[in-house]
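Hi, does anyone understand the following?
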Amino acid sequence: MPDSPQSVEEPRSVRVVASEHGGESTLTVVVAFVANLLIAIAKSAAAVLTGSASMLAEAVHSWADAGNEVFLLVADKRSRRPADADHPMGFGREAYVWSMFAAIGLFAVGAGVSVVHGIQELVHPEPAENLGIAYAVLGVAFVLEGISFLQAVRQARAGARASRQDVLDHVVGTSDPTLRAVVAEDAAALVGLVVAFAGVLAHQLTGSAVPDAVGSIVIGVLLGVVAVVLIDRNRRFLVGEVKRPEVRDAALRALLALPDVDRVTYLRLEFVGPRSVYLVAAVDLTGDDVESSVALRLDVIERHVVAHPAVAGAVLTVSAPGEPALSPSSPS
């Protein structure tokens, strides 16, 4: 849930969440940035010294990842800005905008350069040399990428436990774009290192540059697939991703547990930022009060709902007569 929530007074119950596990997400991105920067420098030197197409593809991959981490840090910082008069729901969706830039950069730079260079190497093959340097750099890179990946997975496991999900399901479905991006990029980096090792080894054993060039193309395709997945996930959150069924059920149960709420006939949850939702619901209140009293009771319920750290804002209305009641789709 968000740390240090900040609030803004609005005519309806609105409070914009400042961040979601901000410190943990920032640490994950910083670890990934430092690892990728060191790896990018080492791979670039190895690519120059060896002439390996796979090593060049890996160098481009790491430079792209390092640049993406800058975008992710910007996303984390800007999305936690407090709301103002022009942005009553805050700036949470900026996380998806900047993460989208990072994913597009991964596709354009990482995937594009790797595939193009691999094709050029197939057309005009060049022998590689000093391959021992390549093996050493790939080994060190695997260790550093592994450290970054483990930090991201550690954060993902904590979130998965909280939401009672598998780690993979949590990473794919989480509203935290920085966590998803780092896990995906680090996983792709580890696979890419294995592909690069295979390409360099095949080049050394056969004396042909073709396996090395193919390795570069495979790395580029891998990055392209990861980038497309990340772009699609950010697009979904930007246009208003609805919460998962189990979270909708939790919100419904929380509303029904309130003493003044008899039934809930409509419920919609929409992301307005990482782990920050806007809630709209129609409820049937207990008793049969006059209109002025109902308005006051609804306002109290709204403020109670917005007090939850994951709810950026809430609007409740009275259910129309005869509307069917909603019920949780899974047992509590």
User: Anything to note?
Assistant: The domain at 245-318 is CATH 3.30.70.1350 (Alpha-Beta Plaits). Strands lie at 13-14, 261-273, 276-285, 311-318. The chain has two domains: 13-238, 245-318. The radius of gyration is 25 Å.
